[in-house]
Amino acid sequence: MKAVDSQMPPRARKLPCNRRILLIMCSGGRKPSIANLIASCRLPSRKPIIEGGKIYVERAPVTANSDNWRQHLYENYVSSGQGGTGASARFRPQKAAYQAIIRRHVPQDRSTRILDLGCGAGGMLYFLKEAGYTRLHGVDYSAEMVELAHGAGLHDVQVGDLFQTLGQTQDGSFDVIFTMDVLEHMTRRSLFTLVAEMRRVLAPGGRVILHVPNAAGLFGSKIRYSDLTHELAFTATSLRQLFQSLGFSRTECFEDRPLPRGLIRMMRAIIWEIGTLPLRLLHGAETGSFDCILSQNLTAVAYAPDKG
Description:
The chain is α/β, with parallel strands linked by helices. 35% of the residues lie in helices and 19% in strands.
């Protein structure tokens, strides 16, 4: 990496925490190029602030008529309550679900090349690493979330733009791409661009593993409107339409049922099965099919063809 530009002072003025964007945590006395960091993150080119081994840039002020509301929300994703408060608080509730996804849908080869787009604080990467996977990479737009990931020991997580990351990646570079709770943040135009780029960088036989709000779910609207940056919700049908129109061979969708582990979870699973049975019967009466996904989110796996 290049050294910090010579014109930058070794210590700069302090800013209140709510006016900072953390770009990177420096270690070993090595500091990356400020210009490269700002360019790679699509952040405004404001004067960096170096303090305590960390590099910050000042946030742009947000006013009632500001057009940068989305950037503002992402920059404040943790402090606004959307992104958790720390690694332990964020990862513990996801442990059973993430471990189940890894066990069911990720190849057993621990050298599988895995990219997590919009990885947030790194929950999925944390459990992949715990399971022995070694070729892990993550990227997230929110510097606050990336700081949490670094605090959990996930140093292969970087601040960056998902489209730039994919654009700089060679064809067939990854075997698995995760987009957990990401696609709902996209406009339709951006969504098609993202999925097409994921198809390009996947190796033959690779897969995208995703988690999205379920528009057909009992409480799907709760998830769709729980975050101001959400644009979309999906159904199993619309996901198949999306991925298979862009070159994926098949798309499998799964209900996020409570996992029967421990007494409380077992009770939740039983209540879910009993409580949703009448709705499945109604769906079958109307459509002739009892195959419906009723959870507020759904998990899906889209497979690239075995031959490019």
